[in-house]
Amino acid sequence: MKKLTTLFSLLCLTLALTVPASALEYNIDGPGDPEYGTSTSVEPVVTADRGEMLNVDVSKNAALIPPTFGSPSAYTLNTGTPLTPNLAPGYMMGEGAIINGSAGITVAPPDFGSITFGGTSTGGTTTTPGTSTPSTGYTEVTSDLYYSGGYLATLKIPSLNVNVKVYEGTTSTILAKGAGHFEDTSIWDGNCAIAGHNRGANCYFGDIHNLNVGDTITLTTRLGTRTYAVTSVNKISETDNSLLAPTAENCVTLFTCVRNQSAYRWAVRAVEV
C-alpha cells in the first residue's frame, strides 16, 4: 500500500511538470504623429514686449548709472553714464552725450574737407584768399608769448579747483610740470588744445569728465584772458584726433586718459563766452 501511494504521488508530480506553460501576450501601439506646426522659411521671434524693442540691446552693456540726484535730467528717461563704457553700444559715437545729468550741447568736429589751411594770417585769424570771411582761427606760438617761468598760459577750472600752468608740448617731462599744449594747435584764437595727467602727483585733469555743461574755464596768456563755457564732455578713442582740428570759434579742448582704459580719452570742449 505504501508503494502504491508513493507511485501515485510520482505520477501526479510528473503530470504537473508536463503541463505546457503559456505567457500573456501584449499589444503596444506606437505613438501617433507629433503635432508640429507648418514649417516656414522665416522663424518669427515673439518677445515679451510683442516686438516693440526689436534689435535693441537691453543687456548690462547698455545699462546706465542714473544721473546725480537733483540734476536737470534726474527724472529723464535714458540718461546717465554707461555702466560699462567700453561695452556700451554706440557710446563712442555720441557727440554731445549726456554726462553727469547734463544735456550735451554738441560742438561737432570740423569737416576737414571744408577747412582752408593756406590763407593769410591776420592777427591769428585765417582768412580765405579772395574773401573777407574768416574760416578758422589760429595763433602760432612765438618766443614773445612765453612767460619768464617757461610756460605759455595759466588754466583755471573753478568748479574743480584747478589752477595749472600750461607748457608747450605733451611729453611726459612736460606733463610732470603741469598741463601741456598740443604743439600743432593754436595758443589763442581758434582751438587751443591742452592735455594733462589724470592720476599721480600732477593729476590736474583727473576729474574733467565730471564737468557739466556751462561750467567755466579761464585761460590767461600774454595776449589776454578769456573765459570759456563747457559745451560737451565725451569719451573718445585714443586715435581720434578730430578735436585737435582748427575752428572758427574760440575754444579750448582738454584731453586726459581714462583710468584703466588705455584705448580711450576724455575730451572736454569749452567755447568762449
Strand content: 25-35%
> Which bin fits the share of residues in helices?
under 10%
Quaternary structure: single chain
Enter the CATH topology name of the domain at 112-272.
Sortase, Chain: A
Q: Looking across the biggest beta sheet, what order are the strands in?
A: 6-7-8-9-12-13-11-10
**Which residues form runs of ≥5 with pLDDT under 50?**
91-128
Q: Determine Rg (CA atoms, Å).
A: 39 Å
Category by helix and strand content: mainly beta
SS elements, strand count: 13
Task: Give the helices and strands as they follow along the chain.
Answer: HEEEEEEEHEEEEEE
Mean pLDDT: 77
Identify the CATH homologous superfamily of the domain at 112-272.
Answer: Sortase
Number of H- or I-type helical stretches: 2
Shape call: rod-shaped
Distance between the termini: 139 Å
CATH architecture name of the domain at 112-272: Beta Barrel
Report the biggest beta sheet as strand number plus sense, adding barrel if it closes: 8 strands, mixed, barrel
State the CATH class of the domain at 112-272: Mainly Beta
Describe the secondary structure blueprint for this structure.
Elements: H1 2-17, E1 64-65, E2 81-82, E3 120-122, E4 125-127, E5 134-137, E6 153-157, E7 162-168, H2 172-175, E8 179-181, E9 191-195, E10 216-221, E11 224-237, E12 251-258, E13 261-272
Parallel strand pairs: 7-8, 9-12
Antiparallel strand pairs: 1-2, 3-4, 4-5, 6-7, 6-10, 8-9, 10-11, 11-13, 12-13
